[in-house]
TrEMBL record:
Keyword Membrane: yes
SMART domains assigned to the protein according to its UniProt record, in alphabetical order: GGDEF, HAMP
The organism of origin for this protein: Deinococcus seoulensis
Protein's name according to its UniProt entry: Diguanylate cyclase
Pfam families, A to Z: CHASE3, GAF, GGDEF, HAMP
Domain GGDEF residues, every copy: 506-638
Stored InterPro entries: CHASE3 (IPR007891), Diguanylate_Cyclase (IPR050469), GAF (IPR003018), GAF-like_dom_sf (IPR029016), GGDEF_dom (IPR000160), HAMP_dom (IPR003660), Nucleotide_cyclase (IPR029787), Rev_trsase/Diguanyl_cyclase (IPR043128)
Ranges for region Disordered: 236-281
Domain of life: Bacteria
Biased composition regions of type Low complexity, renumbered to the chain: 236-271
Segments crossing the lipid bilayer: 22-39, 195-214
Top-level taxonomy: Bacteria, Thermotogati, Deinococcota, Deinococci, Deinococcales
Alphabetized SUPFAM superfamilies for the sequence: GAF domain-like, Nucleotide cyclase
Amino acid sequence: MDTAIVDTGPVPLRRLLLLTQFPLWALTILSFVFLLGALDARVQATNDATQARVRIENLSDLLVRVLDMETGVRGYVIAGDPVFLEPYQSARAALPGDLLALRDTMRLSGTPEQNARNVDRIETLIFRWLAEIATPEINLRATDPDAAAELVRSQRGKKLLDATRAQIAALNARETQALQDREAEAVRQLERLRLALLLAGSVLVLLGLVNALAQAGLITRYLGNLTRAAQRLTDAAPTPTPAHAPGLSPGSSLSPESGPAPADDTPGAATLERRRAPVTVQVGGPREFRELAGTFNLMSQRLQAAQQEARDRADQLAQRNTWMRSLGELSDAMQAARSLDEGARILERALPLLLPGTRGALSHHNASRNLLVPLLHWGDEAAVTHAPDHCWALRRGEVQHPDNRRFAPPCPGQSGAYTCLPLFSHGETLGLLRVANADPDQPLPDTTRALLPGVARQIALALASLRLQDRLLQQSIRDPLTGLFNRRHLEDVMNEQVALAHAEGRPLSLIALDVDHFKRLNDTFGHDAGDAALVRISAALKDAAPPGSTPARPGGEEFSLLLPGTDESGAAAIAENLRAQVAALDLRHAGIALGQITLSLGVATLNADAATPAALTVAADQALYAAKRQGRNRVELA
């Protein structure tokens, strides 16, 4: 056997590799110092811009506080309701903190002394407004509303607040300009940093390439010597022809139990085995190659298992994504719904798709909140009305599965393995979602149970939105005192009904009515008694209004009744009946008899002379005025 000797030279390889790294390290340190300086300048410019933004935000917060206080005082002076003072009180409580935060941030500005003087002026104006305007108006509104209104009309508060806004706007403009300057400086520093990075990166790449070529040449030269020595050792040993499967050496760890061998173009164990050749000298080959083949087989098996797990997870993820898209479509549809009934129809179509293989029902509170009434159901589930206190899920305020209520008796009207989910939104209980397997003998699968919280959250949010939307709609079209429709809704309905009457050739009548001597009633018994009389009259108007009509209170002591499909004689009969009912009322307030209340009523019917909503309204008003002139407590036709 030949013996090969590798000559590595007088200098150790490690020392040569370290020596070639010194220039690259030195240049890296210099580049780091240079880039650190550029980065510090960029960070400083960014911090200055951030401080300017904070000052602008503090100015905006202060302006919002001032507007909240002004709005609260104005609302209280107008309405006299202490609830309007809530934004004023919370804004005034937060005002010292906002001013302190503004002063702290202004100390970091480019002109701290000037900005401090500006803040002093703003603070002086605000507290002048509080002392001279807001507090007197609030105090006067409780004792002398006219004096409070006169103080508002004097516009002293407006002048102070205008001056305050001007000071804030001027200071905000200066800070905005400072922000723009600092952002421009930050952009310039960023350009310098980008140029520095480009220059340093180019030099480092070039030096790294030179260093890599030098190291590669050095390592290749020595490895070439080692390779030639190993080749000579290999040539000295005989190479027998394998008598087993082609491409595998006798010591290969690949076996049928370890799985199929990799393909020929895969750098796996089989490829490595084909490169092996038995030798009689130890060059670090036979045992290491066998271990590498065994390691590769184990890695291949684990990789196959990981790929199968990844495919399974991908399938689950695809199913989850499909379900999430369906849930998103449900959310979009519920946001577009305009009523609770429309939302229920959407949920009836969506829940069987989102919760396949289930049956269930959705219940919500009635107007009195003493019953849970069915809103929808799917599958073979029956709709059940029951009291909220009978439901364990609502009692406990949490989801109730069959396995965690083993000791609790079933809710009334329920049997079987139900999962009950209370629906909450912003601390309010909205209803109950009850779900069970379509097969009464089987519980809900774990996958379906995992989907239920997401579905319940979407349903709760949708129900809260629809209920809020309905409340806001009613608030926008109803008179708050009497519950009748307001002028805006009356005008909208009248425009629609006039168009339908012309298109379908059907009659349309309008009754305009006014309380006789209502001012005298207010002056004699007070506004509370007047409001009580208006409420009683509105109740009589609701009772007299036939189905499909629109009773409304346009304002004050004026009422209207729009009567689609009613001709002049029918409208006159309704008006006369209403007049008689109101005249017969025995009105009392706080134990005091208010005397007889009478109405003057004018009746107008859609015709050639009153063919538009405005003309119909004018005709009814003129008939009302005629009733007033004829002595009141009567009905006049247009």
